[in-house]
Design a protein that fits this description.
Blueprint (H helix, E strand, L loop, with lengths): L2 H18 L7 H15 L4 E8 L2 E8 L5 H4 L2 E3 L4 H9 L3 E3 L1 H6 L17 E8 L2 E9 L8 H44 L16 H14 L5 E4 L6 H10 L8 E5 L8 H6 L15 H5 L4 E5 L6 H13 L1 E2 L8 E2 L3 E6 L3 H6 L5 H7 L2 E4 L10 H16 L5 E2 L1 H7 L7 H15 L4 E2 L8 H4 L15 H15 L10 H5 L3 H11 L8
Parallel strand pairs: 7-12, 7-13, 8-9, 9-12, 14-15
Antiparallel strand pairs: 1-2, 1-6, 2-3, 4-5, 5-6, 10-11
Keywords: ATP-binding, DNA-binding, Nucleotide-binding, Transcription, Transcription regulation
Pfam families: AAA_lid_14, GAF_3, Sigma54_activat
GO molecular function: ATP binding; DNA binding
Length: 519
């Protein structure tokens, strides 16, 4: 077979590989390796290496031939030390090195790595297509012979074909990454579709002082890039508030990716968050970017952050501190630009003290804590909440927006709402389905007498049973009100509570207590 025939066959092989290269079937490394193998049929060599240009340094990416060994794959060349290679790239022409070049010119590119004899055959081929420079391909023979001119010319053409194939592979990988990122966002939404409730009016035009302050603080932090920790009972609308912050941030044009950490399988949690390479584990038939890369440039909402295993917490801390993630099965880290909003119903400070949550991660997450108000403590907002929720429920039940009778509203006002706004939404949806007349009556809600008696069973609001953390928050607020916000000194809140002032300030931060007066 003639040299022209070998070149034609090699070009067909590269074209076939490029058509397959969509980031899954054929990787760039496979393309380079198979390209070097084909080149050996055209231009004999003992060592052929593809160097990728990174900045001003050439890094070995693929190697082939009987002299190929591990240290060759770690080889690096600075372009400043090899002006003849730089010239080959700039002129896009192959360069054949002679004995004089090695002795009086740049020196041998493999000095210190390979012991080639003086005068051995050596050729460098640029891998350039259009404005894109991938690097160079080097061919070396241990024999002191020269490459024929015809072989040099054909190898140069082959290098152009290989560069074009590399460009096709890279384009395919970029498109695949974009598609996979979209798939990640869709998958994240699918995982949440049964959990997300349209928790309307989390902030809204509230009559509650604490809710209005929450709205003010949320707008304040939205304009920054700071990490936010949302603290609240189940169903208080933490995801709704996270979306509120995202939509008022500079990242609003980029993705908002929600993920419930408690809903992800423990065995694949790290892969879901940080991505994985193909073949990283059984079943990893293709690479996935992960949720961090899916949210790149936008916001990643990590709900139920307290459910993360300790080993994953460490990797999350590194991602927050360094802005880098390391996909499972990869030796390289990937830069990401993601704002994290975390949420929990747990007391993370107590969890950290008990060793169930990393203390350093807790402090990194709680840069700006926001505490959501449970529904039972903002029942004055019930009419506005019901109106907003009914507007969102109507399309789901396929009916016009139903009205709420005074009797039904009064019945709803007598509940404790352990499920908060999510529970209210479910009750209203049940009533909307049953309300044939278009008006939800009390009996449409399906509430038992026992439930209706829960708030009126002999307890005053002051005696209402609340969590230990909520009780602590209320008491500290009462003491601060008494001292006009004064913490330090004689008669200050710290002295009354029997706590060091710094400890009191730490608890106030954890509980979301704002101090606006006093010193």
């Amino acid at each position: 077979m003639t040299l022209d025939h070998w070149l034609t066959a090699g070009a067909q092989e590269l074209a076939d590989l490029a058509r397959l290269a969509d980031g899954t079937e054929v990787t760039l490394d496979e393309l380079l390796q198979r390209g070097l193998e084909w080149l050996g049929r055209l231009a004999p060599y003992d060592l052929a290496v593809v160097f990728e240009l990174k900045g001003d340094e050439l890094r070995a990416r693929a190697a082939c031939g009987p002299l190929s060994r591990p240290e060759v794959r770690e080889h690096r060349l600075r372009l400043d030390d090899f002006p003849s290679i730089r010239l080959a790239i700039e002129e896009r022409r192959s360069r054949v090195f002679t004995e004089e070049d090695h002795a009086f010119g740049d020196g041998d590119p493999f000095d210190g790595v390979m012991d080639f004899p003086h005068g051995h055959a050596c050729m460098v081929v640029p891998l350039v297509t259009g404005p894109e420079v991938f690097g160079v391909m080097s061919l070396d023979r241990a024999q002191c012979v020269s490459y024929p001119r015809a072989v040099i010319d054909l190898t140069e053409v082959f290098g152009k074909l290989l560069a074009l194939s590399i460009h096709c592979v890279r384009q395919g990988q970029r498109l695949a990454q974009r598609n996979l990122a979209s798939e990640e966002r869709i998958a994240a939404l699918d995982r949440h579709i049964e959990e997300i409730t349209e928790e309307a009016c989390v902030l809204g035009e509230s009559a509650n002082t604490r809710v209005r302050e929450l709205a003010r603080q949320s707008v304040l932090v939205a304009s920054t890039g700071s990490t936010v920790l949302l603290i609240g009972e189940t169903g208080t609308g933490k995801e709704r508030l996270a979306r509120f912050i995202h939509e008022r941030s500079r990242r609003r044009q980029r993705p908002f990716v929600p993920v419930n950490c408690a809903a992800l399988p423990t065995g694949t949690l790290e892969s879901e968050l940080f991505g994985h390479e193909r073949g990283a584990f059984t079943g990893a038939v293709r690479a996935r970017p992960g949720l961090f890369r899916a949210a790149d440039g936008g916001t990643l909402f990590l709900d139920e952050i307290g459910e993360l295993p300790l080993d994953v917490q460490g990797k999350l801390l590194r991602a927050l501190q360094e802005g880098e993630i390391q996909p499972v099965g990869s030796e390289h880290r990937v830069k990401v630009n993601v704002r994290v909003i975390a949420a929990t119903h747990l007391d993370l400070e107590h969890a950290a003290a008990a060793g169930r949550f990393r203390e350093d991660l807790y402090y990194r997450l709680s840069v700006f804590p926001l505490r959501l108000v449970p529904l039972r403590e903002r029942l004055e907002d019930l009419p506005q909440l019901c109106a907003a929720l009914l507007r969102e429920i109507a399309p789901r039940v396929g009916r016009p927006i139903p009205a709420l009778s005074d009797a039904a509203l009064e019945a709803l006002g007598r509940l404790d709402y352990p499920g908060n706004i999510r529970e209210l939404s479910n009750l209203l949806e049940r009533g909307a389905i049953r309300a044939a007349s278009g008006v939800i009556e009390g009996f449409d809600l399906g509430l038992s007498n026992q439930r209706l008696r829960r708030r009126s069973a002999g307890r005053t609001p002051e005696e209402e049973l609340v969590s230990l953390a909520e009780n602590e928050r209320r008491y500290i607020e009462r003491v601060l009100t008494t001292t006009s916000g004064r913490i330090y000194g004689e008669g200050g809140a710290a002295m009354i509570l029997g706590l060091p002032p710094t400890t009191l300030q730490s608890r106030m931060k954890r509980l979301g207590i704002q101090r606006t007066t006093g010193t």
